[in-house]
UniProtKB/TrEMBL annotation:
Keywords: Cell junction, Cell membrane, Membrane, Tight junction, Transmembrane, Transmembrane helix. It is a multi-pass membrane protein. It is found in: Cell junction, Tight junction; Cell membrane. It comes from Lophotis ruficrista. The keyword Cytoplasm does not apply. One of its GO terms (molecular function) is structural molecule activity. This is Claudin. The chain crosses the membrane at residues 7-27, 79-99, 119-141, 161-184. InterPro entries: Claudin (IPR006187), Claudin1 (IPR003548), Claudin_CS (IPR017974), PMP22/EMP/MP20/Claudin (IPR004031). Coiled coil: none annotated. The lineage of its organism: Eukaryota, Metazoa, Chordata, Craniata, Vertebrata. Belongs to the claudin family. GO terms for cellular component: bicellular tight junction; plasma membrane. The keyword Transmembrane helix applies. Claudins function as major constituents of the tight junction complexes that regulate the permeability of epithelia.
């Protein structure tokens, strides 16, 4: 029962982490302008994400512009995109694999060993997906921090961490934790030893056997 509860907890955490990775990837707030500068009058905040850049006006209206060309993007941004998309696809595969190996599902009930292996395999894929998202968000955050502290970066072009980065870090942590729980949810096999044979007891000598 404890193993089944750990398995269910791991699946829920990994699933929530996968949803968070999708949300983080789609959000445009990967970095936000720390100082708009004197040249921008109507814009209240500037955001940049993996797919678009947005400007929120003082009236509350948000205008976003999708990046025009993939080839014009920086190599670091393209790599971050690829890692996040790979994390989403890996999480989708892990979702189906882990569901098949869940004890509460009726799939593969005739072979419990294979069912347990499917759950562990799903946990491993969730671990890889979480690590990919963690590398992508940490790499992007490192570049934002280095540009912010660079003295040659103009004040009006400095950016800080956006909310999508924090969601990505939390989601990656949940996916890794859930995958680890799934990997540890299988009970250990107990080694079965053949029953020990008792030694026959010597019958008490009555003295009649000897002449």
């Amino acid at each position: 029962m404890a193993s089944g509860g750990l398995q269910l907890l791991g699946f829920v955490l990994a699933f929530l982490g996968w949803i968070g990775i999708i949300i983080s990837t789609a959000m445009p707030q990967w970095k936000m302008a720390s100082y708009a500068g004197d040249n921008i009058v109507t814009a209240q905040a500037l955001y940049e994400g993996l797919w678009m850049s947005c400007a929120m006006q003082s009236t509350g209206q948000i205008q976003c512009k999708v990046y025009d060309s993939l080839l014009k993007l920086e190599g670091n941004l393209q790599a971050t995109r690829a890692l996040m998309v790979a994390a989403i696809l890996l999480g989708l595969v892990a979702l189906f694999v882990a569901v098949t190996g869940m004890k509460c599902m009726k799939c593969m009930e005739d072979d419990q060993v294979k069912k347990m292996r499917m759950a562990v395999f799903g946990g491993v894929i969730f671990l890889i997906a979480g690590l990919a998202a963690l590398v992508a968000t940490s790499w992007y955050g490192n570049r934002v921090a280095r540009a912010f502290y660079d003295p040659f970066t103009p004040v009006n072009t400095r950016f800080e961490f956006g909310s999508a980065l924090f969601i990505g870090w939390a989601a990656a942590s949940l996916a890794i934790l859930g995958g680890a729980f799934l990997c540890c949810s299988c009970p250990r096999r107990e080694t079965s030893y053949p029953p020990t044979r008792g030694y026959p007891k010597n019958a008490p000598s009555t003295g009649k056997d000897y002449v």
